[in-house]
Amino acid sequence: MVQPRAGVPGLNRKQQLLKRHRRNKRVALLLGLLVLVAVGVLVAWWLPLVLALLGWVAHEAWFADHLFYSPAQDYRYRFADDSAHPVQLREGRLQLEQPLALDGSETLILQVQLKSNWLGRFLDPGIDLAGDGVEDRQAFERGVNGLRYLNLGGFGGALGEGRLAVRGRFCRLLGQPKLWVIRHPDYRQQRVMVIAPHADDAELAAYGLYSQAAQTWIVTLTAGEIEAEHYQDMGLGRAEAARLKGRLRAWDSIAVPRWAGVPEAQCVQLGYFCLQLPVMQASPADPVGSREADTADTRPFRQLNSLALPGDDGVPSWNNLLADLRALIETARPEVIVLPHPVLDPHPDHLCAQQAVVQALQGLDWQPQTLLGYANHLHDNDRWPMGDTGTGVALPPVTEGDDTWLPWSLTLDAGRQCDKAMALGMMHDLQPRPPFKRRLRRLLQRLLAGRRGSVFGENEFFRKAVRRHELLWVVKRK
């Protein structure tokens, strides 16, 4: 089980990776400009303009991904030794060496060694899986050359009968794979509380789980009011636009889970302010107002709640947040709490949300049996989960550390994927069109790199989140 790593502040690491990435791009741009000037002087004045345009197109199509590790690095995962089962890849089919009883609920992880061919440096390489009339494709980094981990969720029957076909696309499989079979209780049969730092985090990470759970609570920590330029374009001032956006997202956090059958009384919006959780945590007793909404009162964003909570005095402090969480946990008595992963997800509000839950649990009479972590953001690969809407979710990049991992994969059928997409479509923050530059980049990638957008919406989260799998990890508390 994965434990939080002491001394590895996620935001700082992300900032360092971005800083290094931008520095390298500036150096490359400077060298490129020097070459273009030389070409203009020595060959023809117009040639640098043509080369610069072609270089920009190539960058947008093939080199614009934020990938902060080498595609030739191995992923480093460790699983419990007793979960390993010997398999062989024979004539393109995965064969178990010993009989294995599978009921379809297991999380099946297949380690493979991949090597990209030359096309796989320009088109996303991946693995095609097929068995019992079901097909899937799990994509990886262009130029991949190392250990990767496939998610075989939904293929248990085909695997058990030796009918699971495995084939590389723009890459080759080297050597023999390794299989891990990880068993979990059915968390859908338990009381589940999803902790969402912002409205839409619960839907992105765990709509499939919470829509099927025996009982579900959705607790959203912040109003998500910042970055309200879309509403400023309507003629509102900066603070007014932020307050409107916060009210809309507060409504979303209460209303959208009703689409999945969650009672309104079990959807709670705490109304703290976006990107201010780290500041609150640093001074637990002090109120910390919004960056953009010109307010330090959480009450306008909590008014849809059915429950009375300790923080209803409107003071945005860390102590109030902890008191709110303790009251909710004692009321709901969740057996499973779903929260941001402490290692994988570097967003500062997500890190603080996880830490707040762990701190709130200290000394409580009620303790959940399981903490499940999710990652809606990554440190080192902004495109993960790679691949298209509706396809499977392979394990994310982990290139350091020696943690033992305990993933849990939930397979979603087409109907539930569609319902999840509709829930995301109701979220106001995913509705505005992406900037023109981003839309142009996607057009070039579709034409030149073979990438497809999502049929459900233009926001990138429709591609990332509406997938065949939801992937969560058991997190061990210290």
Automatic annotation (TrEMBL):
Gene3D superfamilies: LmbE-like. Pfam families: PIG-L. Keywords: Membrane, Transmembrane, Transmembrane helix. GO terms for biological process: GPI anchor biosynthetic process. Signal peptide: none annotated. One of its GO terms (cellular component) is membrane. The chain crosses the membrane at residues 27-47. This is Uncharacterized protein. The lineage of its organism: Bacteria, Pseudomonadati, Pseudomonadota, Gammaproteobacteria, Pseudomonadales.
